[in-house]
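Hi all, long-time lurker, first post. I run a small reading group and we've been trying to get comfortable going from sequence to structure in the token notation. Rather than ask abstract questions, I figured I'd post a concrete chain and ask someone more experienced to write out its structure so we can walk through it together at our next meeting. Sequence below, copied exactly:
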Amino acid sequence: MADPVSAAPRASVDGKFFRLGREKFHPKGVTYGPFAPDARGDHFGSPEQAARDFGQIRTLGANLLRVYFVPPGWFLDLAAAHGLRLLIDIPWNKHVCFLDAQVTREAARQAVHAAAVACARHPAVFALSVVNEIPADIVRWSGASAVESFIDELAGVVKHVDPECLCTFGNYPPTEFLRPKETDFVCFNVYLHQPEAFRNYLARLQMLAESRPLVLGEIGLDSLREGEDLQGELLERKIEVAFRGGLAGVVVYSFTDEWFKDGRLIEDWCFGLTEATRAPKPAFFAVQRAFALAPRFPLARQPMISVVVACFNGERTLRPCLEALTRLNYRACEVILVDDGSTDRSPQIAAGFPTVRYVRHENLGLSTARDTGIAAARGEIVAFTDADCRPDEDWLYYLANDLLEGGFAGIGGPNLLPPEDSCVAAAVLVSPGGPAHVMLSDRVAEHIPGCNMGFWKWALLEIGCFDPVFRRAGDDVDVCWRLQQRGYELGFSPAGFVWHYRRSTIRDYLKQQQGYGEAEALLERKHPEYFNPLGGSIWRGRIYAPAHAGVVTRRPMIYHGAFGLGLFQSLYTATSSLTLLMVTSLEYHVVVTLPLLVLAAMFRWLIPVAFASLVLSASMCVAAGSQAEIPPKKRRLWSRPLVALLFALQPIVRGWARYQGRLLPRLPSLAHQGSLPPQAVAQRGPPPSELQYWAAPGFQRRDLLEHVLGRLERKGWHHRPDAGWSNFDVEIFGSRWTRLQLSTVGEFSQDGQQLVRCRLRASWTLPARAIFWSFFGLVLLVMGLAGLEKPWYWLLLLPLPAYAGWLQGQQRTFQRIVAVFLDEIAATLGLRKLALPSTTPIEARAASPLVAAPACEVSDSRPAAP
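-- Answer (accepted) --
Happy to help. Here is the structure in token form:
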């Protein structure tokens, strides 16, 4: 028979939490000791006293002890027999400038190595802490990056002895800026007593922890100075705040008032939950109550949540997605799978999950699929994830908790790389353009990605749900912006995470980026205020993503406080330089690289310049790849070169798709729509720049515009309505070369009569202007390089007048077509067209009495928003 101690599962990291085998493990601990040393120099008391203490600790509801010396074998076995795990701090002399001398560095390495060997593979060991609370002035003296590297080195020593042993280091606010990369989880000692300050600081720490679990290694209160009742009250509240905030675990300092340090018993501090005699204080019972409820404290109420999964040909990951959704630890929920016309085995896979509501329709795109899910949803909250995601079982609990507590209209959470995903997917993870959250503060988000988001259903209905124009991507950005424009806030739940399978091939990744580029073009037309002149999105908040947005060119700055004595010393990370990555953009290649290559073929002395331009672009990609933080277990020799390649290809593919949407949209020709009379195209003379219609009393100008938009949508004519930022009502595109801006105004006379005026301003589109001026500039450049010695070079400009004349003809024809289009709608609405005389509109109104139009049934109303 196997020894139950040796057969116990070991702790492992699982996203923002831990697991023991298949079960989640939430550390609920107390610190233990150190006590006066015995004859062997051990600081753990006698086995008999430890056994009695462990029994009392188990009644407390704790499952973990934090100790500050490496325990002897009997202590490890006794802890395992009582079902307790140990977080073991490894002592070495951190109070000297240990990096200044080889002997002190080696002493630290040997101490960590000896501890790793003594504790190797013991089931009672939860984790080893390679150092605890390095003094801030020593870190400042040695340099933060050097200290971080040494902590990573010590973690490597442990992993070399026992690869499965979890590693951390005990941090605290004075060295908050230390962020080693090789530790498995983040551990902080925090002694803030004000509840709101404590809550805010935990939110900040969650942002610092990013995708790793966050554990409070010490929280406590001195009952000698604060009183025993307040000690219990604040500890109970802190434990609840911590677990509600999505922390993986909490350790209370300490189990007992018996405490030995610096060669003496400490008697002027009383942080224990029990007295030195082990008599419980009120805090013991307060922590007992909190541990009994942790980690899932009851919600204020449990609203019904409908989980909507939109799926199109997602057979590769659909099964693990649905399996995870059927294991959610949230009782009041339903799962709705919307099949957007899949042609793979998705329907057969869905049939194996009878508790999942299955809805199928033809392929209409992502937004329509999500709107279908909203229409079918019975919940107060509608949560969304994708078929390539696997939610954590507590996903809905944390989303609902933060949504209820924060007063947000919507909530989102992280999306993490599954441990079973491929090494290519890990490279894609740190490449540009992946789904990311954008934070305005530690709690308030500007954007939450569509693979992990939830909204109050009333909020979605208020804004008309998702816009069907977004078929592949961009729908989440549009919803976030529209909600914020209504004055609502979006929250972020760091513990409400999903595992998100990334694209596993370069082709799939670039196809995804193409879809994102198309979505950006659609978003720019709808929300121009959020985009720069080149079509790039403008974010007010900070983007949290595994990939750097650019190339890091300077070291982060640390606020130490005067003389390095700040109690909260913060890191101000240098933003990545997007300017440098401009040399990898599509715009740079079109404006600089390609012209240089063409001119280098004509003028050989430009070859070094063209070559230097290519080298500059390549070097920026290599720099970005070298800075990528690839997960260690997924790192291969080819990982960084692959990331550099993706940094080179992504802006070209995404930029080209964006410009296709901006400059080369797929537009139907208005002149071939059949419903328009041919005389509209055959007319001669200048086209009308203004139309005027008499309207019956009570007519609303908005009705005319809604009918215009409705008919444009049904005919598939490309258009952009005013989103509140334009000086026109709707912009209509007739082709790739011409567009028209329609503006309307209503004039009222004293007797209540209304004249509706429509102004038509036609112009060239951006691609038409770009072609004109690019050709003009290229000719001038060639002439300049040739020295202007041949007058016939000016003949190269002759195509431009012909091109401009053709565009003007297109513009006039389109203006006439739109005029007929508006006349048809006006007649449908019973408006009477007014022939424009030479008199002013006011004089025309006086000369032409209003003729009441007969009532008629209107059939061209704009479809209601879904």
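A couple of things your group might point at:
The first strand starts at residue 11 and ends at 14.
The chain has 27 helices and 34 strands.
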